[in-house]
Amino acid sequence: MKTQLEAISTQAKLAITEAQTQAEIENLRVKYLGKKGELTAILKQMGSLSPEERPVMGQLVNQAKAEVEALITEKGELMQQKALEQKLKDETIDITLPATEISKGKLHPLNTVLNDMIDIFTSMGFDVVDGPEVETDYYNFECLNVPADHPARDMQDTFYLAENLLLRTQTSAAQIRTMENRKPPIRVICPGRVFRADEVDATHSPVFHQIEGLVVDKGITMCDLKGVLEEFAREIYGKDTAVKFRPSFFPFTEPSVEVDVTCSECGGKGCRVCKGSGWIEILGAGMVHPNVLRSCGIDPEEYSGFAFGIGLDRLTTTRYKISDIRLLFENDKRFLDQF
Ligand code: PHE
Predict the structure, then answer these.
(1) What is the pLDDT of residues 212-243, one digit of tens each?
(2) Given this structure, which CATH class describes domain 109-336?
(3) Which long-range contacts (CB under 8 A, 24 or more apart) does 66-72 make?
(4) Does the CB atom of residue 284 touch ligand 1 within 6 A?
(5) pTM, to two decimals
(6) Residue 308 CB–ligand 1 contact under 6 Å
């Protein structure tokens, strides 16, 4: 019996050492230590022993069981540890890897400047109105006191879509649409895209942006125009900005002016941006021509008004020191990311 016990015990220890998986270990536990296990079976043979032999043999069996048990537990723990290590290894996350960059959207510089302008004018009581980019000849020219064959048409090279249909060359058409739809007092701005068949270069693009302004009420004078535009220029360019009104000509305003502000780059000393003059032209304006008021059903004897058209692109390029207007329209992300 003792030899049998030793054989089983040696065999068990060998099997445990060789076991590779936790399942194998579990099988060995059942095989040797289970209710029907081989070591348990030996205990059952004890009955055949003499009373003196029994305790001796009992002790030996128990000792063997304890040894096998200890080995199984030890190996089991080792395997668990190994399994855990493997799991951790498989599931490792490399936190040193740079994260995928999430690119944030931002406002185009034109929109940033436009939003500022809208803030300034709405704070002075102006409404924002919209107009179509495809206009009829009537709204873009005719009604603005520029009849067919009028030489002033040459000032704006026009993209015609059909006989009487064109891409608006100026936001001034919005003046007419507004006066047709609203009764004075009128105070509106109309920002939008305009189109001219100009030669493309660093300062000219076939698409650009204007903000048209229109005020019509009783007793509106050139002083009101000056006040509004001076306030606007100071808000946009800073408190020390000087504003210069130069006589000019537009068919739909009389008198007409072009408005310059001190160059924001050199403060008026003269530089590359202002081409040495110290001034930058930012808009055209004037008192709404009586013919225009009349064609919109407003009595020029009772009402007067002023209008202005600001070039948004010029404001943007000077504010951000952008050397070429075309950059505003190319949508190159490397350029836009700078703002
Ligand atoms: N529409 C004119 C232009 O594009 C600008 C302007 C607007 C002038 C309103 C006077 C009044 O040149």
Answers:
(1) 999 999 999 999 999 999 999 999 888 888 99
(2) alpha beta
(3) 67/9, 67/13, 68/9, 68/12, 68/13, 68/16, 68/32, 68/33, 68/39, 69/33, 71/12, 71/13, 71/16, 71/17, 72/16, 72/25, 72/28, 72/29, 72/33
(4) yes
(5) 0.70
(6) yes
